[in-house]
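Why do we care about 3D structure at all? Because function follows from shape, and shape follows, mostly, from sequence. That is the central idea of this module. The next example makes it concrete: a single protein chain, its amino acid sequence, and then its structure expressed as tokens.
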Amino acid sequence: AVKTGGGVSVPDGDVACEEGPVEHEPCTKPDYLSSSVRYNAADTALLDKDGDAVMMEWERPLMKAHASIMTSSTKKKSVLNVGFGMGIIDGFLQEWEPSLHVIIEAHPTVHQRMLKDGWGEKSNVRICFGRWQDEVPKLIEEGVTFDGIFYDTYGEHHTDLEDFHGLMANMLKRPQGVYSFFNGLAPDNLFFHGVACNCVKLQLEQLGLDAEFAQCEIQVNEDTWKGVRRKYWHGRSTYYLPIVTWNGEYLKNAAAQARRDDVGKP
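And the structure:
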């Protein structure tokens, strides 16, 4: 889900010392939230201080597909989006008139843009300004659950995605909930992309969730990257959209265990 070129994520504290192509730089950007971002003049990209893209307009058809999957193309669902960016998926989610639409956004500039564009005035929208690591536990404590959840952060490590999954499972409604994320895993190498997708699938299985990857055709013109320091999509025409749902057998076993636990209670 990390959107920063094709570099390899490195643990916090590691430093890439050798100069080379920007694609070989680490993906993680631990100072992202304390640094500046800007929307370009055409409003087709959100760029960080290095000129790397946080989000771009070419993602629009993918965001529409994600929103359709999250809502099962049905109105009045409850949805959570982690990472507003340009608000593309949130616009599509609003078309499905969700009963509750929670948006977690941590960057101050993006948060101000949200307020300027009127997102804070929508009756069915709740904005949680802060890091998901802080905001998600609050939602869990409140007992809020969602029909659809989407994760699309910037500059984080793949271990952050794993940590999010551990929390997400506490908020995804059973049995109908659907989870998805922007699939920018290992974007510059199809083989490693496949490996990364399988790793995510295995982790989700441990949580009782099934993951499949729907193929979406996407064309990104080279001119799209003008003014952007490095790509986070590398010429592939197929995007593998994650669709994550509860495993029926897991839910059946969990319910049986809950009944056994109830019998043992005084």
